Amino acid sequence: MRRSALKVLAGTLCATLALVGGLALSGCSGENPEDAIRTDIASNFDAIKNLDDATIDELAEEMGSIGMEDYGIDTSELIASMADGFDYSIDSVSVEDDTATATVTVTSKSMSELMDLDYDAMTAELMAAIEAGEVTSDQDSLNAWVGEYVMNMVDAIEPSEKTIELTYVKGDDGWSLDESSNTEASMIFV
Predict the structure, then answer these.
(1) Is the pLDDT of residue 12 over 70?
(2) Which of 9-13, 139-143, 161-165 has the lowest mean pLDDT?
């Protein structure tokens, strides 16, 4: 398989992840802004932390065909693997006038590791699999091997911690994330 096809596969995985982690933290209101913001963050991040099989299947169905099927990758399994190990803690929320900043420590897999795929090592493993008779040279067999290889990589990624700062602004409808923070929240797996 050519490197460009693998880059497309890795890009599709990252795009899939952006959909899974694509939080659009909603507006929140209430008497105590700090509590409202904590509740908003928790409700959105808990949705990822507590993914159950039914929710995973629903997400996979909503995504539809994402190009993984040709490689034998089940979208539900991919989502479950990407979310495996996800956790978070809300370290602080500080409110000043109509702006609030929430500091959140997120533990998640970084799918950017797939973009740095060692193609030479993968090609060597593929050639060894072909020589051993585990893979034939037909496209379906090659695609299945690549799909398994990529899923093994996703499964092997160790979750790591990163701290993000989310800025909320107070509007007529309550507190909501500003645009740059909404983007940062949606990139927790990258």
Answers:
(1) no
(2) 9-13
Give the gyration radius of the chain's Cα atoms. 20
d(CA 139, CA 142): 5
Residue 107 confidence class, pLDDT cut points 50, 70, 90 = very high
Question: Contact, 154 vs 114, CB < 8 A?
Answer: yes
Question: HEC string of 43-96?
Answer: HHHHHHHCCCHHHHHHHHHHHCCCCCHHHCCCHHHHHHHHHCCCEEEEEEEEEE
Return the structure tokens found at 85.
Answer: 């190990």
Picking from 94, 103, 84, 85, the residue whose alpha carbon sits closest to that of residue 163 is 103
Task: Read off the tokens for 13.
Answer: 């995985």
| Nearest alpha carbon to residue 115 among 5, 2, 4, 7 | 7
| Alpha-carbon gap, residue 80 to 64, rounded angstroms | 16
Report the distance separating Cα 45 and Cα 188, nearest Å: 10
